[in-house]
Amino acid sequence: MNDFPLPKHLLPPIDDGAAAHLAGSRLPALTLTATDGTSLDLAQVPGRWVLYVYPMTGRPGVALPDGWDAIPGARGCTPQSCGFRDHFAELQALDTGVFGLSAQDSDYQREARDRLHLPFELLSDSGLRLKSALRLPTFRVAGTELYRRLTLVVDDGRVAKLFYPVFPPDRNADEVLAWLRANPRPSPTLSS
């Protein structure tokens, strides 16, 4: 159930090629703070997991930046997060973890995680260090640099699948699940 429907007039983002280089790349040894207060080194997270990168979540009673809905791909962070929340059990059944990431600080993200009842952690990259390390696409609004929305499926630190641009964001978890089901992770082979 979508508690946060998207406005119907949103402009879809175009594929400008700004993330094409990510397919097959290794994640850098970069430690980020999670909403539970732990530190996570992306290069050391084992197994298969999803990293969805989003611009920013809104907060009840706080206005979004002027012109937010006119920026292709900006709107929809809450519906995207709720999609991964609603499909979390299916992701777990596929042995796939999930993390969200934005440039917002952990306190801001913690409020969103708790309010939205997310069963996974959000990662803070307020210094845009992942942007520098992986050349992730960003945009500026109201004097702030934010990530453009993209989603990575990662296998043992290597990008196995890139979703970019992501639109509509409330369908991203469905698209990721469809890809995961069609591309099961190979079982480790036993050496003799």
Q: Can you summarize this structure?
A:
The protein is of the alpha+beta class and 192 residues long.
- Sum up the overall morphology in one term: globular
| SS-based class | alpha+beta
Distance between the termini: 49 Å
Share of helix, binned: 10-25%
DSSP summary, beta strand count: 9
Order of helices and strands: EEEHHEHEHEEEEH
How much β-strand is present in the residues? 15-25%
What is the C-alpha radius of gyration, as a whole number of Å? 16 Å
Structure description:
This protein has five helices and nine strands; from the N terminus they run E-E-E-H-H-E-H-E-H-E-E-E-E-H. It is an alpha+beta fold and 192 residues long. A seven-stranded mixed β-sheet has the order 2-1-5-4-3-8-9. A two-stranded antiparallel sheet has the order 6-7. The chain is globular, with a radius of gyration of 16 Å. It starts with 30 loop residues before the first strand and ends in a 10-residue tail after the last helix. The mean pLDDT is 93.
